[in-house]
Amino acid sequence: MLKFYQSNFVQFELILVYSGVCKVNAAIATWQLINLFNVDIIINAGTAGGIDESVQLFDTIISKKVIYHDVGDDILTDFHPWLKSNYFSTDPSLINLIKSYYQESKYPLLIGTTVTGEQFITDKNRTEIKQKYSPLSVDMETASIGHVCYINKVPFITIRTITDTNKYQGIENVELNCIKASSISAYVVFEFLTKLTTSLI
What we know:
By secondary structure, the protein is α/β, with parallel strands linked by helices.
């Protein structure tokens, strides 16, 4: 069973949950956050793998678009939820807030596309995904979170820090860098909430 933790940050009530790995687990956690707690926004934090050559270890990716790389391009446009394109967009106002300060952030922030799928990405997969989607990063959860948020009309943003890159590939790098990357992601979330607080005053 998922465990939910409640906390407060200035005027915000926060509900935290660790979804676990993979699309279905992330979708379940997101659905429960929305339906049990009636949240106003979803902030997806964690780690990801770098795909674009410009992405370095411990960069933090702020996604504007999230796409399934293992779902046919027409599945979500020809069938429910009948998207106009094959991707989910994060909330523009939240992205604009990050754009207003991202160059001043303590850690490097990059804004772009993230792709999601159920498997760890190999060299062959990296090439195919890069050519088709031109993403900055890849993970196993974010598109499913965007999917659930889209269905429920809840704005979301994703803040994920890089554990492995084209140069530093493999599960050994993920394991080596996971704790530091997670800490950076958490700090960037704190930074974001601080700016969000200021923007609402």
